Amino acid sequence: MLDIRLIRETPDKVRKDLQKRGAVEKERLLDDVVRWDKEWRATTAEADGLKKRRNEITRAFAEAKKAKKDATALQKEAAELPRKIEALDAKASDLEGKVRNGLLRLPNLLHESVPVGKDDTENVEVATWGTPKEPGFELKPHGELLEALGLADFERARKIAGAGFVYMMGDLVRLDQALLAFALDHMVKAGFTPVFPPYMMHRDAYEGVTDLGDFETVMYKVDGEDLFLIATSEHPIGAMYKDEIIDEAQLPLAFAGISACFRREIGGHGVDTKGLFRMHQFNKIEQFVFCRPEDSWTWHEKLRENGEAIYRALEIPYRVVNVCTGDIGTVAAKKYDIEAWYPRQGKYREVISCSNCTDYQARRLNIRAGKVGGDKFVPHTLNSTAMATSRGLVAILENYQNEDGTVTVPKVLRPFMGDQETIGAAKK
RNA sequence: GCUGAGGUAGCGAAGCCCGGUUCAACGCGCCAGACUUGAGAUCUGGUGGGUCGCAAGGCCCUCGGGAGUUCGAAUCUCCCCCUCAGCGCCA
């Protein structure tokens, strides 16, 4: 969330940003927040005045008792105060809640380089790598290919858990693990600390890392428990320092999360509905950084470069887009998507999402940095996919598919799967 | 799940039985100033959140959370949450 002081002192700066997003209803919300905040300050000031009087009376009462003087006049005055204070406190608390809720719904300030646009069709391409090559034969849908090779069982997964799940089998499991191992290896070499986080977390922690509205649509909740299955390891890692003061000497903190991810929303269907592209459960290596505010834009480029380097190593063509105002979401100040080339679909599709959340996420989580007893600041947080194996696997299955129905293993993955060069060979 | 012990500021730790000289002592750490060539040691002040103020400074809130009793609650009462230890169960 934004700093209330920013809104109080420079509401027009915030308003200009909302106009860039074309968020008219948010502008109204901004006006409401400004008004509620003003009322809140007036109300608390009034309540504080009465509390001051109450404290004075209490002290005077103790003095009078000690001196064995009559204190009934004081007692009488004090008797009237609690009701008034209670009413003002209730009003203030209501206003405070409104302000907080408003703040949670106002989006982050955008970086100046974010392009203005209505939706993902207006994202701006900023880089491309590799040349998509013609396969020279008709590629099989990867889901059918995997079934034919006995490497995935969508039917039985559907029987026991419904659509959106799969039994990965045999070489596909090894390929999945190789992708994870390769990406984690890359991150460790880049100086990131691996983290295997809890797969579930409490609602209050979740509210800090993501938008409230997402709960019903993307989150799995454990029945009867205050626990949600994580949608990405970004969430437990981001929430790790909730309500803490990070010693500034420890910054930057760079983590490589590894986890399964669980999402209810698998969205609309495009080409090849059956398959790994959109799943309720998939595996992912995630990059997450806490850093000083002045360093976050440098880190944003580093995270992007890590993501690009991984796909370059896999020799899969990709492009990078600067996500426009209509597609960027609430939390990020700037976001790059890296989109890999999918030859069967004939287009680039998102495999990596790389965001600088500036201080927005950290403030929601009540994370500060500095020295205890000294000045504090709100650190910046950044997150980016390193490798989501669902999409990575599909990219490999399309880009490395051979005419005989086998799939060549990308060179960089071979050391992670016993130097195996091909999968599906035995079954062809 | 059962039993017991706990939850006080960044950390440690008093206070709770017996409500009011405790507007949370003391120690460590940290910050600022003084002293010093510098560092250390020492001394002094400060150390969470909010709000008002140009500032100096003022005021309010904060003892796991909530409700209650009272003129007044860290302290008394009730409910809830969490942590730790032992036991049980368990990959």
Offer a concise description of the structure.
The protein has 428 residues and is α+β, with helices and mostly antiparallel strands. Helix content is 42%, strand content 20%. The longest helix is centred in the N-terminal third of the chain and has 43 residues, at 24-66.
List keywords for this structure.
428 residues, alpha+beta, Helix Hairpins, BirA Bifunctional Protein, domain 2, 2 domains, eight-stranded mixed sheet, three-stranded antiparallel sheet, 20% strand, RNA-binding
Architecture overview:
The protein is an alpha+beta fold and 428 residues long. It has helices at 4-9, 11-21, 24-66, 72-105, 142-148, 154-161, 170-189, 203-209, 214-218, 234-238, 296-313, 360-364, 389-399, and strands at residues 124-129, 152-153, 167-168, 193-195, 200-201, 220-221, 228-229, 245-247, 253-262, 281-291, 318-322, 334-342, 347-356, 368-370, 376-377, 380-388, 407-408, 422-423. The protein folds into 2 domains: 4-105, Orthogonal Bundle (Helix Hairpins), CATH 1.10.287; 120-427, BirA Bifunctional Protein, domain 2. It is built from 13 helices and 18 strands. The chain binds one RNA strand of 91 nucleotides through residues 41, 44-45, 47-49, 51-52, 54-55, 57-59, 61-63, 65-66, 71, 74-79, 81-82, 244-245, 247, 371-375.
